[in-house]
Structure formats: structure tokens, C-alpha cells
Write a structure and sequence with these properties.
The protein has 290 residues and is an alpha+beta fold. The chain has 7 helices and 19 strands.
Length: 290
């Protein structure tokens, strides 16, 4: 299944079938209306979704707004230096252990929403990434059992403000500006992806191919990352883990090709669809004290 969060008069979850979305809430009032609630419902929730697919009203995808698949993940974790070609272009050494950092969940935005070029910096870069979502609360998961706790997969752009990222040893600030975490376009459930480590990934900027790789090139794959992370802390339904970016980021080019207002970044991953975001100048903040 392809499970999405969408807005059509109200915001709720649905299942994408072809060029339509099944309104799950309209089919079954007992189903959760948010993605984390559905994941927390476990197998029973997914069984109810399957039943609702037969009866639920369908809305053309063109008539809805696809939102971030998980509006506010409990955790948004990412992995640095996880493809050999990106390690090489960064001038770093191949890590012996996964390099984990946080992206604050307030950076999450939708698969087709705008990305802000910050007032604080114009050193803005893209990172096309393969992401997975945890489906079960878990701890101390072995690599052999890791597939059982993954609900599904999605696309991530780990948008990065490079000067803020690299001026201190920890990367959270440079990775967490508002709108710098596009995810989506939906959650493709794990049963639809027989091998998550055989998926082609491509990133385009204004139609120019910048990144082209395959998840088979990951240094630390999804299952290894689940084992590693769950050794330290509990993973929860809705946690998003971005697995790292391949070579071809803008800062690594000679000369660098950083993002500017008007640029359009498109990321495609086989079997998962595509996300596409336009860079705009950061607008005036209207959410409270600035």
C-alpha cells in the first residue's frame, strides 16, 4: 500500500491507488486520521485499511494536497557519510560506525512544498535520500529481525545549510532549518518493497541530474541502522530515519552548485515515487514572536 497524509477540506490519511486516493476516514470512522495513530494501531489497523480500500470513497489525487507523510515524527534521525562516493567528495574517512544526527521535527515539510532559502545563510544544499519509518515500538532489535519493525519507506531531502552545519562538530543546527526536511510523497509499506537495498535513486536540480546511485551502495543498510539505533534508545512508531546521501551534492562540485531562489529539486527513488520542491526566499515569520 501507499499511505498518504492529505488535505481535502480537512487533513487526514488515505491510501493512494493509481491516480486516486481512498478516503480512509470516510470508509471507517474507527480508523485513526493521522499516520502515527495508524502505525500505533499495528496489524489490526492495516487490516482495517485493506478492508476500507474496497468501500472507501475515492478522490482524484489532482484535487488534494499531499502533506508530509508524518506531520510531526517522534524522531527524525539521519545518517552522515553513508555512501562511499559522498565520503570521497567530502574528503572524509569512511566511518567505522554510523554517523547519526538529529533533524528537528519542525523542519518537516510536504513532498511538494517550498524550501526556504534562509535569511541567515545562502549556503543551501540538497541531499536526496532513502528513508524508512519505524512501525513498532522496539529496543535491542537484531539485524536479522530489523525488517519486522520497519513499516515502510519514503523519500527524504536532507536539506542542509552548509556553513551552519560545518562550523561546529554537531550538525543539528545546519540540518534543521524550517522546511528543510521534505518527506513523502507517501509511505510505501514494506510488503511492496521486496529488497530495500536494490532501489535506484536520482536527484535533479532544474532538470539536471545531480545524483544517481542505488541503495545497494549504502555503507550501513537499513537493517544495520535499526540494530545500531535500537541498542541505545527505544524506536517508536513514526520515527523517520534518513539513510544518507550519495555523491553529487552541490557543495562537492567544482565549482560548487548551491541552491538559489527559483531552483526546483526533484528526487526519485524506484518504487517510492518522487518529491519535488521549489526554493523560495524565507518569508516573514507569522507564527508568533520573531
Amino acid at each position: 500500500m501507499k499511505l498518504a497524509t492529505f488535505t481535502h477540506e480537512s487533513t487526514r490519511i488515505g491510501a493512494v491507488v493509481g491516480d486516486q486516493i481512498v478516503d480512509l476516514a470516510a470508509a471507517d470512522a474507527d480508523l485513526p486520521t493521522d499516520m502515527i495513530g495508524l502505525l500505533e494501531a499495528g496489524p489490526a489497523g492495516l487490516e482495517a485499511v485493506h478492508a476500507a480500500l474496497e468501500e472507501g470513497p475515492r478522490i482524484p489525487l489532482a484535487d488534494v494536497r499531499l502533506e508530509a507523510t508524518l506531520l510531526r515524527p517522534p524522531k527524525f534521525l539521519a545518517v552522515g557519510l553513508n555512501y562511499a562516493d559522498h565520503v570521497a567528495e567530502s574528503g572524509a574517512e569512511t566511518p567505522a560506525h554510523p554517523t547519526i544526527f538529529n533533524k528537528q521535527s519542525t523542519c518537516v515539510t510536504g513532498p511538494y512544498d517550498d524550501i526556504h532559502l534562509p535569511r541567515a545563510s545562502h549556503v543551501l544544499d540538497y541531499e536526496g535520500e532513502f528513508g524508512f519509518v519505524i512501525g513498532r515500538r522496539c529496543r535491542h532489535v537484531s539485524r536479522d529481525d530489523a525488517a519486522e519493525v520497519i513499516a515502510g519507506y519514503l523519500i527524504v531531502d536532507d536539506v542542509s545549510v552548509r556553513d551552519w552545519q560545518l562550523r561546529v562538530p554537531t550538525w543539528t543546527m545546519g540540518k534543521s532549518f524550517d522546511t528543510h526536511g521534505p518527506i513523502g510523497p507517501w509511505l510505501t509499506t514494506a510488503d511492496e518493497i521486496p529488497d530495500p537495498h536494490q532501489l535506484g535513486l536520482r536527484t535533479f536540480v532544474n532538470g539536471e541530474l545531480r545524483q544517481e546511485s542505488n541503495t545497494k551502495e549504502l555503507i550501513f543498510d537499513c537493517f544495520t541502522l535499526v540494530e545500531h539505533l535500537s541498542t541505545a534508545f527505544t524506536l517508536e512508531p513514526g520515527d523517520v530515519i534518513a539513510t544518507g546521501t550519495p555523491g553529487g551534492v552541490g557543495i562537492g562540485m567544482k565549482p560548487p552548485k548551491l541552491l538559489v531562489a527559483g531552483d526546483v529539486v526533484r528526487i526519485e527513488i524506484d518504487g517510492l515515487g518522487a518529491i519535488e520542491n521549489t526554493v523560495i526566499p524565507e518569508p516573514q515569520f507569522t507564527g508568533g514572536i520573531r
